[in-house]
Model the fold of this input.
Amino acid sequence: MIDVALSELSKWLAATPLSHTIQTTSWFIPTIQIIHILGVAVLFSSAVLVDLRIWRLLERDIPLAQVARRFLPPICPVLLILLITGRSSASRGVRFLIPPSISRWRCLPLPSC
Done:
């Protein structure tokens, strides 16, 4: 039941103009991957900076609440961007670099891998 619905959704998406543009434009997938990598960098750096403040290794004179207000707000939008760009990258692009046994486990939470 779910397989049929996903198959129909995949066929419909493949027929959309956006899908055609993605498939015929050579720069689209690398751009998505760059956005994904930058999102990982923002997420990681925000988390590390707050952790360093918690461990009192950075900005000791600034209250933790102020540091959190400065570095934590980007995390939620970046997580959404990572979900979208990661899903796009998982469905295309770099599959040939990952052995099938690893790829299966990496994509386990994603239904169409």
Q: What stands out?
A: The mean pLDDT is 79. Residues 13 and 27 are 20 Å apart (CA to CA).
